[in-house]
Automatic annotation (TrEMBL):
GO cellular component: chloroplast thylakoid; chromoplast; membrane
Molecular function (Gene Ontology), one example: phytoene dehydrogenase activity
Gene3D superfamilies from the UniProt entry: FAD/NAD(P)-binding domain
Highest taxon of the lineage: Eukaryota
UniProt name for this protein: Phytoene dehydrogenase
Origin species: Dipteronia sinensis
Keywords: Carotenoid biosynthesis, Chloroplast, Chromoplast, Membrane, Oxidoreductase, Plastid
EC number, as in UniProt: 1.3.5.5
UniProt domain Amine oxidase: residue ranges: 130-571
Length: 592
């Protein structure tokens, strides 16, 4: 999904609008020499410019089959226009020399080069989403033996997907991989699967509600550096904001630019809507741009979302040349992303078990973890225990004696936000779409994409499959699938006026899947930041991972992966203490 959709979504420990000295950049680069060769892999994409869009093809992993070609006509550039299906993957952007990528690479390499443990720890990890997979992967890199337990029969957590009886996949969310996701990008490189990301044109495309079927674009020129490319994209777009509105918005942003991280963190207690008004920014800016952005980031509207979330996203998108550039995974996430991580873990002696649901965290007399009791009666014991589930599941399983500990008590404010992901297969190829993520600007829908065009595995030259994020979903999560589809079709009729009607008198629905997640990423409302826990808990030998824990990004795939690295780092740092603790328990047991 975009940041949440985009499962997205982001806190930075360094200056929010920061720079790094050439010396520091050189130091980081030198520290990585000889240890990150896998990160230099390139996709097998053919370089294609906009003049070659009349005959383009998917390129990349040969295991996915032969390249697919869609002949199309080039579309004229207008200020706003209906979209035309063009199927094109762009070369992987140059990310390796960005500060954030180098920092992420350095953290990854620290696990591979750390001293090998004389006694590898057996680490039990609950939850095989990206946070749990990341934790296990980097602990295995450091020489330990993780055992990853997943309650369901599918990998991925919030990026899980399932195959229906026709062999078609449907997913938990619409997942977008940004250039500004340095730890995710490093992970792809470390696994040797960079070619599984299908990079798209550096643009953001928004529907125009008062002009059904038309769209407005923000195009980021490749020849310009950041933040000039982003400023140019905003200045060149005249459909969504007037010049006076752009000027007032720019002036309103000055405190964030000048105040840095201290200012950004201070905005955690105010909503987007409140901040905009406080800065004298016209309400139309919120309506035209930030409703769509808020729903994409956290599935909620600007009157609920913390402004800190928006400022962090804007920071990354404006300060990194390719930060807002998007890629789609070339297939279903469990097989194309999660399984390579599992294979890596297993190759280093770790284990991953599905259908292993935790019923209870059982404690020792000193309130430390004794074992995990599974619903099938199996008892799982280890040297260290990690919970990498969503925060709502952790709260359900917290032992009573832990609930009043301030570290855990603060979790009460962190609550997952409901979201619905909708997949609709049509009887024809829709024309008013694009090989890209689209912002619907609908009151019911967030972002959507024609996955039959954007994703190699889902490619279909004759029929479209739209994947849409239905948000905010609070009032809809308990409604029937048919009600949700009816409401979705009414909105699609505005986006595709010539091709879709609510009564299906035009394009017909062949089938659909509705995936409801009652508690997805945590709801980034004001004053949540102080409640986010560090990965190292006050309970000796017990750790947390998940996008809700403290890390540079809020609720996102990047946040989940980074939280896993921080969790693994804390365990590696605590190694001597954890070994001594284990030996002490053995001595106590022998005396008894």
């Amino acid at each position: 999904m975009l940041c949440a959709c985009l499962y997205h979504h982001h806190t930075f420990t360094s200056s929010a609008f920061f720079s790094i000295s050439q010396f520091e950049l050189f130091r980081i680069q030198m520290s990585l020499c000889g240890s990150v060769s896998a990160l230099n892999l390139r996709c097998g994409f053919r370089h294609v410019n906009s003049d070659m869009m009349n005959a383009t093809s998917f390129r990349g992993s040969e295991s996915m089959g032969h390249p697919l070609t869609i002949p199309t006509k080039t579309r004229p550039r207008k200020a706003s226009h209906p979209l035309q299906v063009v199927c094109l993957d762009y070369p992987r952007p140059e990310l390796e020399n960005t500060v954030n990528f180098l920092e992420a690479s350095y953290l990854s390499s620290s696990f591979r080069v750390s001293p090998r443990p004389t006694k590898p720890l057996k680490i039990i990890i609950a939850g095989a989403g990206l946070a749990g997979l990341s934790t296990a992967k980097y602990l295995a890199d450091a020489g330990h033996k993780p055992l990853l337990l997943e309650a369901r029969d599918v990998l991925g957590g919030k990026v899980a997907a399932w195959k229906d009886e026709d062999g078609d996949w449907y997913e938990t969310g619409l997942h977008i991989f940004f250039g500004a996701y340095p730890n995710v990008q490093n992970l792809f490189g470390e696994l040797g699967i960079n070619d599984r990301l299908q990079w798209k044109e550096h643009s953001m495309i928004f529907a125009i509600p008062n002009k059904p079927g038309e769209f407005s674009r923000f195009d980021f020129p490749e020849v310009l550096p950041a933040p000039i490319n982003g400023i140019w994209a905003i200045l060149k777009n005249n459909e969504m904001l007037t010049w006076p509105e752009k000027v007032k918005f720019a002036i309103g942003l000055l405190p964030a630019i000048l105040g840095g991280q201290t200012y950004v963190e201070a905005q955690d207690g105010i909503t987007v809507k409140e901040w905009m008004r406080k800065q004298g920014i016209p309400d139309r800016v919120t309506t035209e741009v930030f409703i769509a952005m808020s729903k994409a980031l956290n599935f909620i509207n600007p009157d609920e979302l913390s402004m800190q979330c928006i400022l962090i996203a804007l920071n990354r998108f404006l300060q990194e040349k390719h930060g807002s550039k998007m890629a789609f995974l070339d297939g279903n996430p469990p097989e194309r992303l999660c399984m390579p991580i599992v294979d890596h873990i297993r190759s280093l002696g770790g284990e991953v078990k599905l259908n292993s649901r935790i019923q209870k965290i059982e404690l020792n007399s000193d309130a430390t973890v004794k074992n995990f009791l599974l619903t099938n009666g199996e008892v799982i014991e280890g040297d260290v225990y990690v919970f990498a589930t969503p925060v709502d599941i952790l709260k359900l399983l917290l032992p009573e004696s832990w609930k009043e500990i301030p570290y855990f008590k603060k979790l009460e404010k962190l609550v997952g936000v409901p979201v619905i992901n909708v997949h609709i297969w049509f009887d024809r190829k829709l024309k008013n779409t694009s090989d890209h993520l689209l912002f619907s600007r609908s009151p019911l829908l967030s972002v959507y994409a024609d996955m039959s065009v954007t994703c190699k595995e889902y490619y279909n030259p004759n029929q479209s499959m739209l994947e849409l994020v239905f948000a905010p979903a609070e009032e809809w999560i308990s409604r029937s699938d048919s009600e949700i589809i009816d409401a979705t079709m009414k909105e699609l009729a505005k986006l595709f006026p010539d091709e879709i009607s609510a009564d299906q008198s035009k394009a017909k629905i062949l089938k659909y899947h509705v995936v409801k997640t009652p508690r997805s990423v945590y709801k980034t409302v004001p004053n949540c930041e102080p409640c986010r826990p560090l990965q190292r808990s006050p309970v000796e030998g017990f750790y947390l991972a998940g996008d809700y824990t403290k890390q540079k990004y809020l609720a996102s795939m990047e946040g989940a992966v980074l939280s896993g690295k921080f969790c693994a780092q804390a365990i590696v740092q605590d190694y001597e203490l954890l070994v001594a603790r284990g030996e002490g328990r053995l001595a106590e047991a022998s005396i008894r």
